[in-house]
Amino acid sequence: MFEDIQYKEIFQFFQEISQIPHGSGNEEELSNYVKAFAEGLSLEVYQDAAYNLLIRKPGSAGREAEPSLLIQGHLDMVCEKDHGSPHNFETDPIALKLDGDWLFADRTTLGGDDGIAVAYAMALMSDTTHSLPPLEILLTTGEETGLLGANYFDTSQIRSKRMINLDSEKEGTVLISSAGGAKLQFHTRLTRSVQPDGYIPVTVRIYGLKGGHSGEDINKKRGNANKLMSRYLFGWYNHCPNTRLVSIDGGVKDNAIPRECTAKLWVPGDLSEEVERGCWWFGEDLAKEFGGTDSQAKIALEWADIARDPEGWSLEPCSNEDTGRILSFLNLAPDGVQNMSHVIEGLVETSCNLGILRTDEDIWTGVVSLRGSQRDQLLAMKEKFYILSGMNQIEMQVFSEYPGWEYREESALRQRYCAVYQRLFGKEAGMEAIHAGLECGIFAKAIPDLDIISIGPDIVDIHSPSERMSVSSVQRTWELLLAMLEQEESATVVERT
């Protein structure tokens, strides 16, 4: 597939990575693979209990005594697939496809976020033709589920005072700060009972949404399937308070905007025509609301045949009280953009994403990803959720909190990037703060004098099966990275104004 592509070794490394399942929590095999690769090159390797890797490569001839530079990315990927795809992320390789300049997968996430960083790292490890400074290469685990590996890693192992993070998805733009955040988990015990006489079972699906990253795509006015389902069900519950919820399940990752949600419920049989009309009208509302941003959004209703699907309807309905408080909580839960920055135009300052809903026999669970660049706004959002959950007798826990990465006025590494970019491509690089969590925040907090930038090639629709990566952008970013590393430490650079 990549034989005739410039810098084919990078894409071949990426293809090798794609053969090894490496969703969050399942990185051991890939970590061991990269470890063996580095050891085969006689490089110094440190692997911790979380399967984070720190690899050291000496500088090229004449550069051995230079200060080292840290290259950083993460090993795990978000596992999302289209409805009906048979792909098993625990066992199956990612099936790569190439169409012109775009590399993508067969109805699953590609894993360019952040597999391309691993591919770049392997190319740097094996490179013998370029003049490079001493390198430290840090590849972490669990980034997509709360920056877990970075939080676990012993940062005293790091010797470098400069770091290039390769977890950005916009070529020509250097990231200079990122948001902090936390996960909020909600759960409540359920009381179940036999459905009332005269009630019939129905399944409702909301599907076809684009989804996307809950930070970078949160301001693109895409639908959240969990919130839309909550709105639909709460509207029906208000019309018919005797409706009984069986289950509501949607979303895969807290940091991915949910594309699908399914609910099962029992409704009065004499209201079946009203249920169908309400579903039709809700579908019309979806088309109007998201026609320009999420045009494939759909709602579907199916009357269940329990005799043909006894396993799917093995749960009794929730009590009327449980149905009401869960739907009330979900309908009122904040979601999407909450505040915009008054300092940086277009920057989302605070947001939340109702990413996961799960219903078991006796427990209902929801997970929200909360992001923000202002500490007081994050605290205010947590307080809102505390109050809302308490009003509905739902328990709330805060976990996986991570710090933001604050803008640093003076950065020699950023100066170097801007100067090299101008020289290579004849135009100024962009600088951007993002509304997403990066591991940069953890390392900046642990090592206050660490000079950090984040760069990467063009990757679009990350965290969704539409994810695709530009081949030419991967090539240009590689040239830029090499040019930055090959430049002499003493070279004079001038930051753009």
Descriptive overview:
- It is a single chain.
- The longest helix is centred in the middle third of the chain and has 19 residues.
- The protein has 497 residues and is an alpha+beta fold.
- The C terminus is likely disordered.
- It folds into 2 domains: 254 residues, Aminopeptidase (3-Layer(aba) Sandwich), CATH 3.40.630.10; 221 residues, Alpha-Beta Plaits (2-Layer Sandwich).
- The chain contains 11 helices and 21 strands.
As an assembly, this protein is single chain
What's the main sheet like? 6 strands, mixed
Mean pLDDT: 94
Strands, total number: 21
Gyration radius from CA atoms, angstroms = 24 Å
The CATH homologous superfamily name of the largest domain equals Zn peptidases
Q: What is the CATH architecture descriptor of the largest domain?
A: 3-Layer(aba) Sandwich
> What's the N-to-C terminus distance?
43 Å
Characteristic key phrases:
497 residues; alpha+beta; Aminopeptidase; Alpha-Beta Plaits; six-stranded mixed sheet; five-stranded antiparallel sheet; 11 helices; 29% helix; elongated; disordered C terminus; zinc; cobalt; hydrolase; metallodipeptidase activity; metal ion binding
